[in-house]
Amino acid sequence: MEKKILIVGTGLAGLSSAVRLVNQGYKVEMVEKYHQPGGRLNQLKASGYTFDLAPTFFSMSYEFNELLRDCNIKPLFEFQELNPLYHVFFRDTKKQYQLFREPEKLAEQFNEIEPNFEQNFKNYIEGAGELFHDTIDRIVKRNFNNFYSYVWAMMHVPPKHLPKLFRTFWQELEKHFTSNEVKEILSLVAFFLGGTPFNTPAIYTLLSYTEFIHDGYHNVKGGMYNIVEGLVNYLTEKGVAFHYNTEIVGYHTNKNQQLEYLTDTQEKKWLADLFVINSDAAHFRGSVFQRTAFTEPKLDKMQWTMAPFTIYVGVEGKLDKLGQHNYFLGNNFKEYANKVYTENFETDKPYYYVNIPSKNNTDAAPADGEALFFLCPVPDLRMRPDWSNKEQFADAIINDFEEITGYQIKSKIRTLTIIAPDQWETSFNLYKGSGLGLGHSLKQIAWFRPKNHDEKFANVFYTGASTIPGTGLPMAMISAKLTVEQILKNYGSLS
Ligand SMILES: Cc1cc2nc3c(=O)[nH]c(=O)nc-3n(C[C@H](O)[C@H](O)[C@H](O)COP(=O)(O)OP(=O)(O)OC[C@H]3O[C@@H](n4cnc5c(N)ncnc54)[C@H](O)[C@@H]3O)c2cc1C
After folding, report:
1. Pick the CATH number of 45-101+306-435 from 3.40.430.10, 3.30.519.10, 3.30.1390.10, 1.10.10.10
2. How far is the centre of ligand 1, averaged over its atoms, from the C-alpha of 413 (Å)?
3. What percent of the chain has pLDDT over 90?
4. What is the pTM for the complete model shown?
5. CA Rg value for the chain
């Protein structure tokens, strides 16, 4: 018998769920608030320049291959491996580092400031790698249908990793390295998780292993949005209908605790047998299903990841000294990190990331120009609700960039777009502008994260960054896999 699934949201987790579900014989329809698919994995075009809107690279590229292999799909996009992974620039010392994947080449960058770097790095990464392999299948890539199965799985993680639950990312680095610059650079990955190394548990040092050793970082030839276009084309061929500019705001149930339909802002009814919510799993439960555990005051008490302040600049001229992925840091790392997600955040000397897609993709900018995407992590709207000064802040970032790099880009700007946290919130329903969704404290991961099967409506499932396992593109792919596993467990395959 045919079963129809409505997916709310066309982010990577929504699209990947759709691919898996059509392959299991389900009829899929998708609704999306934004005007085009992809969610945060989106694209911005302006005056002949093309920018990745948010994600610019990813780890664990094999998760994409797994989706395609599982569904018997030929490659839809081509990966490009990054090496160096990124460049780091320090504002005051003017020092620059390139983060190579090979330990010997990496050591050459750091030998002056951390004389025993190669051995220290080896020891650090060994522990991170063991933790990765001991937990990835046992904890991360798993559905836990009851608390005991979670405790049971945790009990089977080798006890040698236990201390990492009680240390911070920074404390783990302090055990291995003496140079502050080395620690600062190796801890940048904690910001990718939306936290800081001073509040992120040391278990996430496993990310150092994924970035340097396991699979490195990749992006996509022709731009990250090729992932979305590839998946949407495939789904369209399979008969999936997409409806954009459609925001779900209400619902209706039948007597059997089943969701009957969702409603959009025009009060149109969206009927289906099953529903997959790719909108934020915590926020949606509160704002649409009106669940008492997810009211605004309760959501406000949860830990949310950084809010993005982003600038998209098309300039005339080439910036040859820079790489495709560049970090700009000051000389007050700890003080800055401790303020960056608080109301005390100051906008004068920011730390930020600059992506230059035109370095590897000639279509991203005219031949005589460069496309630049600035990302500065800032506090979310709970702590800084007013972004009416966004132009001044963007100016401060660009001034700083000019000062550090020596490139005077301001007079050569052909296009400039600023997206502050309030716009990130309204565009994609990101709670208070939090860019990566719920944070990854021990109280908000695995069993404790909002579940991917609804507590009340048996026919409602969630997928994406704020349900299991967490944020980032590979996690969104894993999330889709886990969600579809839950659906198949409950409703079976129809193919
Ligand atoms: C600035 C920035 C930079 C990032 N950089 C990276 C990176 O380099 N590498 C990486 O791996 N990750 C990165 N991330 C994280 C990554 O983008 C996310 O983890 C991932 O894209 C989340 O996918 P998702 O499917 O869970 O959610 P989303 O992409 O948010 O998709 C959810 C979709 O649901 C829609 N929606 C929400 N509510 C409703 C509703 N009520 N009705 C209809 N539609 C609705 C939204 O509009 C959205 O399209 C970055 C994130 C940001 C913000």
Report:
1. 3.30.519.10
2. 28
3. 94
4. 0.97
5. 22
